[in-house]
Each structure stands twice: as C-alpha cells, then as structure tokens.
Predict the 3D structure of the following.
Amino acid sequence: MRFSLRFVIQTILLAVRQIRAHKLRSFLTTLGIMIGVASVSTVIAALTGLKEQVLSEFESFGASKIFIFPDQPDQAGQNRFPWREIKLKERELAGLVENCPSFEQFTPNTDFRSTVIHGRKEVPNINVVGIWPSWHDIENRPVVMGRPFVEADEIDAKPVAIVNDDAIAELELPSDPVGSIIMVKGRRFLIVGVIETNRTGMMSFQPEQTEIWVPFSTARRMQSPWSFFFVTGQVKSPELVDEATAEVRYVMRSMRQLGPDDPDTFRVEAIDQYIEQFGKLATGITAIAAGIVAISLLVGGIGIMNIMLVSVSERTREIGLRKAVGATPAAIMLQFLLEAVVLSLLGGLIGLGLGQGLAFLLTIPEQGLQSASIPSWAVALAVAFSAGTGVIFGFFPAMKAARLDPIEALRHE
Amino acid sequence: MIIRVTNLRREFTVGVETIRALAGVDLSIEQGEMVAIMGSSGSGKSTLMNILGCLDQPTSGTYELDGKFVSGMDEKELAGVRNEKIGFVFQSFELLPRTSALANVELPLLYAKDPGDRRARAIRALDRVGLSDRMDHRPNQLSGGQKQRVAVARALLTDPALLLADEPTGNLDTKTTEEIMHLFADLHAEGRTVVVVTHEPEIAQWCTRVVRLRDGLIESDKAVEPRR
C-alpha cells in the first residue's frame, strides 16, 4: 500500500486535531510514556555527566599512573601473611626504582595526623602527607609560591613543609607564607612553598581540603612504626601500562621471594582499571535504566492501546462514513496508527523535555554535576522507542478499525 | 446506462440459517433518472442499496456501474469506486463533529486519486446547495436541513455518476423535507442520476420512477409523473 505524502501529512494533521480535541484524555494516556522517558532520560543525563566528570578527573589524574599497595591476598585463607611481610619497605621502593625501566618515576605516599600550630593558632588533626620531590610532577601539582621539594630535602629529611591555600587560611598564615614556621608534632617546620588547593572534588572524597606536605623521609621518622605507605608510579607512556604492571609484579615477587604458588602480597592497580570499573558500573546502571524504560513503555503502550480501542469504538460511525466516501482499509489503518504514534511520540518528546529540565536542575547547586545533558543517542532512542510503542500498541486497534464493515459501522449506535 | 444489475442475489448466513435478502433482481437505471426504491422493512431494499453503493457484494449476479463491472472487485477497488462514482446521502447526515462544514465537504477528496484544489471544489459544492455563508460552521451550529445540505454538497463533490440517498429526509420535519427534496429535484433537473431509498410515498412522489421490492424481488417498476 502506497500513500502520497500529501495524504500522510493530512492524516498526521487529523491525528493532531483528534488529540487536541481530547486534550485531557490524551495527556493522561500518554502520561506513562512521559514519566518513563523523563525519569530514564534524567538518569542517563546524570550518568553521562558523572561519567564525563569522572573520566576527566581520571584524565587529569593521568592515564599512565600505577599504584602499588600492600595487600593481604584474598585466597590466603588460614595462611595469612603477617603485616610486616605485606607492608611495603623502603628497600622495595628502591628496588622498584632500580628495576622497572617502563617507569618514568615513582613517589611513595604516606600520611599521619597531627596538631599543627602557627603562632597562637592551633589546629588539631591535620593530615600531613609525606612524598618525594617527583610527586609534584606525577600528580601535576607545581608550587605557585616558593619552591618545590628537592632531592636534598629527602636525603637529609629536612624539616620543611609545603602548604595549600586552605592551610594558609586555617592556620592564619600570611598570604605569602614562605619562610613562616609551623609546629608539626612538636617539631619546627619551615614553609618553603605553596600549592593550589585541588578543587575537582569527586575523587578526593575527604571533606577537609587543608593539606600539608613534608618530605617522605621526614614523615617516616615522625610516624608510628606500624604505619605504612603506598607507591605511585608514572609510566613512560599509557601504552606501557600493562608492561609496567608486569614489571612491578616481577620485581616485587622476586624481592619478596614468593614461590610460584604464592599469591601476590601486594596489589598493583592502574588508572585504566578504575576507568574500566567505572565504565562497567555506568553501563550497568544504563542497562537498568533501559529496563525501566522498557517497562514504562510497555505500560504506557497498553494505555495507548486501551484509549485507541475506545477511540475506534467511539468513532465507529466516522470510520463507516470515511469508508463510504472512499477510504481504503489501509487508509483507515494509517489514520489510527498515526494517531497512536503521534500520541506516544508526543509523550516521549514531553518526557525528554522534562528529563532535560530535571537534569538541568542537577547541575544548579555548586556541589552538583558540572554538566548533565541527555546524550543524542538517548534522544534518538527515546524518540524511536516511543514511536515504536505507538506502532506496536496502535496496531491492533488500527487493524480493528480497518476491518470494520462500513455497513455495520454506519448502523452503529 | 448508469446501473445495470442482472439476477442479483444476496444471501446471509445467520447461524445455520440462510437468509435470502435478494432473490434475483434485474434492474437498469439510465443516466438522468430519479428513481425511488421502496419497500417495507425486510423487503431487501437496504441490501440492494448497499450493493448499489458498493458497500456490499452480491452472492451472485452482476452489477455494472457506469461501465465498470463492480461485482468481483476487492475491497480496495470498491473503495475507489465509492470515492469516484457514488455520492452518499444518509438519513442521519453523518457529518464529522467538531469539523467545519467546509472540511466535512472536503472529506472525500482526502481519499481521491486526483484531488485538485480541494478547498475550491468544496466551496463550489457548498455554493451549489446554498450554504456558502455557512462554510466555517460546525455541525452543531447548523439546523437539520442545513446539515443535510452539507451532506449533499459532500456527495456532489467528486461529481459522481450516482447520487445515492438512504432515507434522506428521515430525520427532518415536513418543511425541511420539502426543501431537501427540492434540492434533489433540482440536481435531477441538472441531469444527475439520483436513487432514493425510502419507505415514504411522499418522497417517492418526487421521483420519475418507482421500484417496489418485496421479499427480495422487484414487485413493481413504474415510471411516474414527478411532483415539482
């Protein structure tokens, strides 16, 4: 059956008129689809925004970073390894630096909490982080004032510190604090540099943002003996991540003299593993959202089928008349099918609008997402699926209308 | 010859029973005739009208309309014949609600192969029935007589070979009945072929020929002097 474009346009206009003639009924009918599409598109928009944000954070983190943590193996069972064997040691760190050619550089990370005093201002429980000079480079956090840590600070375990803006504010330091003295765990520290506060937020979940850095060797001397550290390594290029991971495992296992059947007593993680994990999570949530939209379209579609059946039965005489003046069964079929499609498409489009509105609300507060908009694939999918719902659930009523006998239809009360 | 029907039979099966609505009808209607088809209920006049209107197909026999053999056509072809060759006028007008008189008249052209300027043609048809000042009125704003005029305009729209009116004045009062029958008489005078199905002798008076059906057969077929 072929219809001219003119006929199809006329029929669409007819459908629009019919829907406008029953505004409330049409609205209620399509509400299911509207709500379904709105909620799911909001979730997808939020998820997309979140994903972008997290990925960009990972990106700024550096895609070529590898972390080495002390770790009790999962399958250890009864033969648990003592902590002193699991803990990373300075000589292992030296071994990594020596024997892993895929790496540009490493830095250990360790921290402890301490009351920090500046003059008469005393701030308890500040996180003090011990690092190597290479940390500035690996984490991309250069100093904005003063100088970064240098090799000599590390070798001599100098009592020097670098602070961030938040620490300046909290400790009431002068706006150029370089040269000021602070007390950490009762020891005098000279502030040598200032680093900008990292405000990207998402990955650093700690609410406090006051940070003080000291040389790693200095930090180790001030820590309790059972404290530990982890290592961040920067791989020469992102393609070398797998090779670098293998190198770390080999070097660590041979230094720890693990047998072939022994599990790793440490954990090596690359950033791309996190990205992958997050990607899986996002895909999972998207799949659940898709499931919800499928259910809501099913429910909405049944609503549309119901109202279309009512419409066919109400307009039986009209159908009879249209047939009498020359409408073919296919023309009647198209009329009702298009009406169902326009109805559900309208629901889908309003739903998308609502969804975008809700997604926009998510970006308003400062703590919210930086951006949340429905991706174009989701828009296309929502439009296609709601139109499809109209076709599928409009088919049976349209068929019923097309098959009506004009004589019977014109006699219908 | 507009209509030529030979040995037309139509049977309906209800359960196990077979009802013979038309038992062999032969009828020819010439161009420009105005024919009343009469008969009591159950005489088969509705069945005959449905077949003449291409809404139904005979069980056997042939039907030739304006040179085309209609019997044996499929549903789609019949729809095309109804669109091009037949103008229906129904007892209860059958106008689409919430739709202007003009749009109602335009309706058949939506399904036409070659609709031309739909609006202009619909305006002309409304003009012909004297309602060009009511084009934008909706059915609920029109009187019964006006509604039927709109319906006649719709029937005239595609310039059909046959105007087929089924009890066209059944829902109208005496005065309006006169008006509508005058309109049909005028259309007949212009050379149109009109078939009116009715059970009222007052309506049959307006026709040039009266065909009476009884038990599915033609009981009488007489030329008469029409009232004018």
Summary: The longest strand of chain A covers residues 103-118. Residues 201-205 of chain A have pLDDT under 50 and may be disordered.
